[in-house]
Design goal:
The protein is α/β, with parallel strands linked by helices and 332 residues long. 38% of the residues lie in helices and 17% in strands. It has two domains: 199 residues, 3-Layer(aba) Sandwich (Rossmann fold), CATH 3.40.50.720; 101 residues, UDP-galactose 4-epimerase, domain 1, CATH 3.90.25.10. Bound molecules: uridine-5'-diphosphate-4-deoxy-4-fluoro-alpha-D-galactose.
Length: 332
């Protein structure tokens, strides 16, 4: 099948970790993913399943040109700065890049008559709510600039639906891990800040050790609890979300998590078992902006989209991440 067959979807951030997996899933589902990426945190080598438009969300003319060239039926918007810690130090970068960039993108989409939009939001928009079941109706009270920037974009989408009929699906991700089982694409950030790849680096000696950020949280073992989702399950939900919009259904918000929490120490223990190696660990201070516990309390995506996160066991996520870690890499 030629690369131009099938409806086009503009994938911002298609050269990044989640976006590249989404491009593979879209291609498998019969769409042509057109990556729009400035390659600041993404990788040219990760764009394997459709064309690459090298451009920045701040550049409205480049966006307009991409819509004119490819006439996408929908947008999947992944491109963002996404480091919680960094967002506390340089919030302006997050508001400018994430919020103003998204405004440009949304205005370009509506100007081009593209009215389907799938947006990657985050459970970080909920903030730190002790003993609260986090579902899509939970209060959004972010405690870091990253979460605040994503919440603002959610609001923006609602306003543009009212004014321009921009139908959208918002996915609030919990923690994403794992990699393509074929290791065609995987997780590679420079610098890396995420738990699983840092831990795998520590296991095979590329780093001295893994620092646990805080052991005095109010959790059973003192470390933070997160709800981890396999990246391939996560992007499957995006294809289902796109079909939801293709079928003419209305805008909807979905949490993407499994409802099961793992502490940092539990993730370390699973990794030691899966790799059969020791994880060198150092106990350190808390990282600013980290929430104690973030676990989804919703099955809306399963019930309404028919989403089945069947790969999201911790062992499977670590196994696939480890395979990518050992065999895959990007050179550019
Ligand atoms: N952690 C460590 N040591 C490290 C790195 C992480 O102990 O070297 C801990 C963190 O403190 C946290 C957990 O491992 O408790 C997961 O941390 P990550 O950095 O992997 O992920 P975050 O939970 O900070 O952030 C991720 C995404 C965000 C998203 C957020 C929602 O990167 O985009 O999940 O919780 F908003």
């Amino acid at each position: 099948m030629a690369m131009t067959d099938g409806p086009h979807v503009l994938v911002t951030g298609g050269a990044g970790y989640i976006g590249s997996h989404a491009c593979k899933a879209l291609r498998g589902a019969g769409y042509v993913p057109v990556t729009f990426d400035n390659l600041v945190t993404g990788w040219r080598d990760a764009v394997k399943f459709g064309p690459l438009v090298e451009g920045d969300l701040q550049d409205r003319a480049a966006l307009d040109a991409a819509f004119a060239t490819y006439s996408p039926v929908a947008v999947m918007h992944f491109a963002a700065l996404s480091q919680v810690g960094e967002s506390m130090q340089v919030p302006g970068r997050y508001w400018r890049n994430n919020v103003l960039g998204s405004l440009n993108l949304i205005e370009a989409a509506t100007a081009a008559g593209c009215d389907r939009f799938v947006f990657s939001s985050t459970c970080a928009t909920y903030g730190d709510q002790d003993n609260v079941v986090l579902d899509e109706n939970s209060i959004q009270a972010p405690i870091n600039a990253y979460g605040a920037s994503k919440r603002a974009i959610e609001d923006m989408l609602r306003d543009f639906e009212a004014s321009n009929g921009l139908r959208h699906v918002i996915f609030r991700y919990f923690n994403v891990a794992g990699a393509d089982p074929d290791a065609e694409v995987g997780e590679f950030h420079q610098p890396e800040t995420h738990l699983v790849p840092l831990m795998l680096d520590a296991i095979d000696g590329k780093r001295d050790g893994l620092t646990i950020f805080g052991t005095d949280y109010d959790t059973p073992d003192g470390t933070c609890i997160r709800d981890y989702v396999h990246v391939c399950d996560l992007v499957d939900a995006h294809v289902l979300g796109l079909r939801w919009l293709d079928e003419g259904k209305g805008s909807r918000v979905f949490n993407l998590g499994t409802g099961t929490g793992f502490s940092v120490r539990e993730v370390i223990d699973h990794s030691a078992q899966v790799t059969n190696r020791a994880v060198p660990v150092v106990e350190g201070a808390r990282r600013p902006g980290d929430c104690t516990k973030l676990v989804s309390g919703s099955t809306r995506a399963e019930n309404e989209l028919g989403w089945k996160p069947h790969r999201s066991t911790m062992d499977r996520m670590i196994t696939d991440a480890w395979r990518w870690h050992q065999t895959g890499h990007y050179s550019e």
